[in-house]
Write a structure and sequence with these properties.
alpha/beta, Rossmann fold, UDP-galactose 4-epimerase, domain 1, seven-stranded parallel sheet, 12 helices, globular, binds NADP nicotinamide-adenine-dinucleotide phosphate, binds ligand F7E
Length: 341
């Protein structure tokens, strides 16, 4: 019988890549989505529209223990990937309360429901490099102390500790991946990589001229989400539960990302990027770079995308997505008698 998996956050970037990957391995895939998303799938299921016929979606919210309990009580799962979260760091400074509520209580609900109903189900928690925050050493590894710099980072430390506590106290097979930034064409538009590549596409096609950004000197270890979901799966296939850092080991500044993305489109970022203090954060994580040697050694995991592959794929995908709009606009202008190219 095919193993059955539950993915919270299946409508998000990682949830969608993970669903693709687990289906390719023969899993029966179930996901949790919010009711509002189920009401308007064309709008909220953009990342999973291509596979909705092959997965089962359950309505639920991380803000409701009964909804999580009810989904887990109706199906026996072999693995659970808990990816749902308020994942935007900047938003967590605006509303730390809802970030804490969703990310900490939501994780506790999933763990508690599994313990009550299916303690044998293996569970993955989506930890983050934001837990290292004001870094105590470079590169960061599993033993590096946490020093979060945002309500989001704090909520992820709490989720990590809850997961570890359920493992130690109740003997459950639950673990955390400490994943560094991972991106791709399905990344949300508010994150800096997609903000850059989507605006590069608009500038390239003459639909915009300017890109407003915050701290260009912040450095991140950027990988590709498709590589990182393979690591999540590998973690749950090990004989013993343990926590792993997943990273490329390479770091680049936001400025370098801009330079590269604009150059791919034949543009110079200096002609378009403007600094806007609005996008600076009250506390920043200036330099993140991970040491994934444990994952390489134990899981046999390694990334397949280089930084340049990642930026190229994102820019090309955003340009390709806009081109039909541009053609339509042009033909509308022509049929209206316009002749502005
Ligand atoms: P994402 O694209 O923002 O997806 C987040 C998912 O969580 C969405 O499906 C969202 O549903 C769901 N969600 C949010 N609030 C919810 C609620 N109250 N109830 C139910 N579902 C809710 O994030 P991602 O990039 O895929 O990241 C996946 C996980 O990994 C997150 O926990 C994130 O914090 C963590 N992480 C990400 C990275 C990264 O670089 N991507 C790195 C380290 C850790 P809607 O579609 O309805 O909003
Ligand atoms: O910011 C700087 C910003 O929002 C990256 C999430 O997936 O990864 C992600 O969190 C850097 C920061 O991602 C803008 O100050 C400059 O230094 O793309 P981001 P993040 O905060 O690193 C971690 C690992 C997660 O766990 C999170 O869930 O870019 N930056 N100018 C900007 N950032 C944004 N968003 N917008 C700007 O205009």
């Amino acid at each position: 019988m095919a193993p059955r998996v539950l993915i919270t956050g299946i409508t998000g970037q990682d949830g969608s890549y993970l669903a693709d990957y687990l289906l390719s391995l023969g899993y029966e895939v179930h996901g949790i989505a919010r009711r509002v998303a189920l009401e308007d799938p064309e709008r909220h299921f953009t990342r999973i529209l291509h596979l909705v016929d092959r997965i089962q979606i359950h309505s639920g919210s991380l803000e409701s223990y009964p909804s999580i309990f009810s989904i887990i009580s109706r199906n026996q799962f072999d693995e659970c990937y808990h990816l749902a979260a308020q994942s935007f760091v900047a938003e967590s400074f605006q509303d730390g309360f809802s970030t804490m509520n969703i990310n900490i209580n939501g994780t506790h609900y999933v763990l508690a429901a599994l313990k009550e109903l299916q303690p044998e189900c293996r569970m993955y928690f989506a930890g983050s490099s934001e837990m290292f925050g004001k870094v105590h050493e470079t590169p960061q590894r599993e033993t590096t102390p946490f020093h979060p710099r945002s309500p989001y980072g704090i909520s992820k430390v709490a989720g990590f500790e809850l997961t570890r506590n359920y493992r130690e106290a109740f003997g459950m097979f639950c673990l955390s991946g400490i994943l560094f930034n991972h991106e791709g064409p399905r990344r949300g538009f508010e994150f800096v990589t997609r903000k850059i590549t989507s605006t590069v596409a608009r500038i390239k096609l003459g639909l915009a001229n300017e890109l407003r950004l915050g701290n260009l000197e912040a450095k991140r270890d950027w990988g590709h989400a498709a590589d990182y979901v393979r690591a999540m799966h590998l973690m749950l296939q090990q004989p013993e539960p343990d926590d792993y850092v997943i990273a490329t080991g390479e770091t680049h500044s936001v400025r370098e990302f801009c330079e590269s993305a604009f150059a791919i489109a034949g543009l110079d970022y200096r002609d378009h990027v403007k600094i806007d203090k609005f996008f600076y954060r009250p506390a920043e994580t200036d330099l993140l770079v991970g040491d994934a040697s444990k994952a390489r050694r134990v899981l046999g995991w390694q990334p397949t995308y280089s930084f340049s592959d990642l930026v190229t794929e994102m820019v090309q995908s955003d340009i390709a997505a806009l081109e039909p709009n541009r053609r339509n606009e042009k033909s509308e202008r022509l049929s209206a008698g316009g002749n502005n190219g």
